[in-house]
Amino acid sequence: MRKRWIVVADSSKARFFNAPVSGKLEEVETLTHPESRLPGQDMCRDRPGLALDGGGHGRHGLEPSSDPKKQEALIFSRIVSDMLDKAHGDRRFEQLGVFAAPAFLGMLRDQMSKAVAGAVFLEVPKNISAQTTPEIQKHLAAELDK
Predict the structure, then answer these.
(1) In this predicted structure, what is the pLDDT of residue 44?
(2) Nearest of 14, 3, 11 to residue 136 by alpha carbon
(3) Is 38 exposed, middle or buried (0-12, 13-18, 19+ CB in 10 A)?
(4) Is the CATH code 2.102.10.10 the one for domain 4-43+64-144?
């Protein structure tokens, strides 16, 4: 029987489950990234720079070049992907199911190694990371019954 994992994630929390084909989910690990939950103004430690108008009529503030919340989510997607890559390399799973918030799912896809991406048997763009294990089990069963 193939070893199967389910990862349930959003931009600040990822939960990893053993998922036997005919058994209950067993949570094996949880990663958190509290930086993703900080208010936007707390993520930017420095004030944006100032720029001079081309006509010489004064200065104005520059906008940050990227969204700090998106940057933190991207950092966390790399952490989750690295964890999956290591677990796959250690043969902790052969098949992977992913439930993730839609935007975060796209980031995970971009970060996954080819080996991990090849192990994915289920992708669901749904944020269920705050739900209980039995609720996650119901979502998994519903997806597998489709």
Answers:
(1) 47
(2) 14
(3) middle
(4) no
For residue 100, what are the contacts with CB-CB under 8 A and spacing of at least 6?
7, 8, 9, 10, 108, 124, 125, 126, 127, 129
Per residue in 11-51, pLDDT (tens digit) is 999 999 999 988 899 999 999 988 756 555 444 455 554 44
CA separation for the pair 79, 81 (Å, rounded): 5
| pTM, entire model | 0.79
> What span, in angstroms and rounded, lies between the C-alpha atoms of 92 and 17?
11
pLDDT tens digits, 86-122: 999 999 999 999 999 999 999 999 999 999 999 999 9
CB 6 within 8 A of CB 25: yes
* C-beta of residue 116 within 8 angstroms of C-beta of residue 84: yes
